[in-house]
């Protein structure tokens, strides 16, 4: 792997590949395999290594080593996101149905929720407020605006305050 990445290491150290020299020792310590490496230029004073170079030297082999695991994690993430979208869509639709039949007497809120559900179906990727189009953010704002469902809240509050019959 170090041989494969030797030119990238040389570049990170600002050494032309023809002048790059190195030795490495691999320690296979079961739980902690690692490499010790010495690298230099055949021309004195030519090499220079800064924090960015150190990062590049470490990141290339790390990316190669963990590429297979990362692919698996990306697949899991994608699957989890798809499941979350499916469950969220189902929950919103169920909530809308319950609003229609049980606890909500706000046709305005119901219509806004249905409109938002339809709009969110067209959104690809993360459904995070900050990443949504302005038009969809406006729809979200309208749904969470208390004035949209104030009648329902007053109704629920009065139902809670009503003392039980004796």
Give an overview in words:
It contains 5 helices and 2 strands, in the order H-E-E-H-H-H-H. The protein has 166 residues and is mainly α. A hairpin with a 6-residue loop joins strand 1 (20-27) and strand 2. It is elongated, with a radius of gyration of 30 Å.
Condensed summary:
With 166 residues, the protein is mostly helical. It has 5 helices and 2 strands; from the N terminus they run H-E-E-H-H-H-H. The radius of gyration is 30 Å and the shape is elongated.
Search tags:
5 helices, mainly alpha, 59% helix, elongated, single chain, two-stranded antiparallel ribbon, 166 residues
How far apart are the termini?
A: 82 Å
Largest sheet: 2 strands, antiparallel
Low-confidence stretches: 151-163
* Strand-residue proportion: 5-15%
Helix content bin: 55-70%
Largest sheet strand order: 1-2
| Beta strand count | 2
Mean pLDDT across all amino acids: 79
Q: How big is the Rg?
A: 30 Å
Tell me the series of helices and strands, N- to C-terminal.
HEEHHHH
């Amino acid at each position: 792997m170090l041989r494969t990445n030797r030119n990238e290491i040389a570049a990170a150290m600002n050494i032309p590949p023809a002048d790059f020299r190195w030795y490495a020792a691999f320690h296979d310590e079961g739980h902690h395999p690692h490499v010790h490496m010495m690298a230099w230029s055949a021309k004195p004073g030519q090499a220079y290594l800064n924090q960015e170079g150190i990062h590049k030297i470490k990141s290339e082999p790390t990316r190669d080593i963990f590429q297979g695991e990362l692919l698996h994690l990306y697949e899991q993430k994608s699957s989890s996101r798809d499941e979350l979208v499916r469950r969220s869509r189902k929950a919103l639709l169920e909530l809308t149905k319950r609003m229609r039949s049980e606890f909500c007497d706000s046709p305005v809120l119901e219509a806004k929720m249905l409109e938002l559900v339809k709009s969110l179906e067209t959104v690809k990727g993360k459904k995070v407020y900050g990443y949504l189009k302005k038009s969809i953010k406006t729809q979200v704002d309208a749904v969470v605006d208390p004035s949209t469902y104030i009648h329902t809240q007053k109704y629920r509050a009065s139902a809670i305050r009503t003392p039980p019959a004796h």
